[in-house]
Amino acid sequence: MMRKIINSIPNILTSGNLFCGCIATVLAVKGNIETATYFIFASAIFDFFDGFVARLLKAQSALGLQLDSLADMVSFGVAPSAIVFHILSIAQIHAPLELPTFTPYFAFLIAIFSALRLAKFNIDERQTAEFIGLPTPACTLFFCGLAHSNIFTVTGFYALLALIPLFCFLLISELPMFSLKIRKSPKFAKKYSLQILLLLCAIVFIAVWRLKGISITIAFYILLSIFGNIRRSQNKTKCQQ
Question: 3-state DSSP call for residue 132?
């Protein structure tokens, strides 16, 4: 009985992720973007801790894996798409060029490619220690950070249209990206140097630019992952020589 209760804890946290994602979607549809992004941030916290707690309690299960993906699809696929859709709808009014009325619907490419990303993750056995492609929470947090910037301007409108296909590509790309899952290691500082650097920079970015700093942090995460791949490739070449 006690084991069943323990095994249910990660799923309860995942359900919290889904609940917050549903609320964020409703708020985004109603145009309450700021509060919607806060609920997505809450979803990201639940998403981090459900996996952490599952590993800590050794309560990982096939059911939990599927539930996590379904929750992520709402919180990090549908909800951010609704937010970006609303932003594009407002910003399009002030755009100097008359664009088709369906232009804001390009925002839902985020939901489509997030679904592809999550489906790939579930069947890709390579993604145990690192990610292949941009994780859906990172993509979502990037756009949520933008929602708190001056993206409603004309320049921001076109920049946002350009960023959507870029991040959709990153979601399903074969770009290895380091994970924030940290385990005990005798060479902790060396092994997790990129994670530590990202965390320290995130604190600075958010302190200086507040919620806009989240978008900067995600962009920096992508650059760090690229740098880490280059460094790893160079070390591998040296070892072969």
Answer: strand
